[in-house]
Design a protein that fits this description.
Helices cover 39% and strands 18% of the residues. It starts with 6 loop residues before the first helix and ends in a 13-residue tail after the last strand. By secondary structure, the chain is α+β, with helices and mostly antiparallel strands. The protein has two domains: 41 residues, Winged helix-like DNA-binding domain superfamily/Winged helix DNA-binding domain (Arc Repressor Mutant, subunit A, Orthogonal Bundle), CATH 1.10.10.10; 80 residues, Lrp/AsnC effector binding domain/regulation of amino acid metabolism (RAM) domain (Alpha-Beta Plaits, 2-Layer Sandwich). A hairpin with a 6-residue loop joins strand 2 and strand 3. The model has no long low-confidence stretch (mean pLDDT 97). Strands 2-3-1-4 form a four-stranded antiparallel beta sheet. InterPro entries: ArsR-like_HTH, AsnC-type_HTH_dom, Dimeric_a/b-barrel, Tscrpt_reg_AsnC-like, Tscrpt_reg_AsnC/Lrp_C, WH-like_DNA-bd_sf, WH_DNA-bd_sf. One of its GO terms (molecular function) is sequence-specific DNA binding. It comes from Palleronia salina.
Length: 153
């Protein structure tokens, strides 16, 4: 269900996407409103599920997670039991930042953050030990050109 947003709602969403830690005063100043209407709108946006959990973005390289792999997975298994096991396996692996089921020749793509190629190999060995996979292709990202969590609102 789509939520109807007006211009002020969109300004608020853009402001909190850039920095959810800023004060209500700062958000109100940025969007050209006062605190009470901004607070009420943010409360309604939370209640509607438009605004979800607030988190902090960490720098993976400063934490020693210098390698980003995109893992392309093809499987010959498509039954519910295999899918549930695969999903449980992915959820249990903190290295997996994103996982998507795809249309086309590739069944799944994972975004995996690890320290280096050796750490990726450990991840890979653990993955194939837990779930039967037909084919895995790992692509190492040489440079991140753009990364954002901001949606175009």
């Amino acid at each position: 269900m789509n939520v109807q947003l007006d211009a002020l709602d969109r300004k608020i969403l853009r402001a909190v996407q850039r920095d959810a830690g800023q004060s209500l005063d700062d958000i109100a100043k940025t969007v050209g409103s006062s605190k009470t209407p901004v607070w009420n709108r943010m409360r309604k946006l939370r209640e509607a599920g438009v605004i979800g959990q607030q988190t902090v973005l960490l720098d993976p390289e400063k934490l020693g997670l210098e390698a980003c792999f995109f893992v392309l997975i093809r499987t010959s298994e498509h039954d519910a039991q295999w899918q549930n096991r695969f999903l449980e396996t992915l959820r249990a692996r903190p290295e997996v930042l994103e996982a998507h089921r795809l249309a086309g020749d590739i069944d799944y793509i994972l975004k995996v953050r690890v320290a280096n190629a050796r750490a990726y190999d450990s991840f890979y060995q653990a993955l194939i030990a837990q779930v039967k996979i037909h084919n895995v292709t790992a692509l190492l990202s040489m440079e991140e050109l753009k990364s954002t969590t901001e949606l175009p609102v």
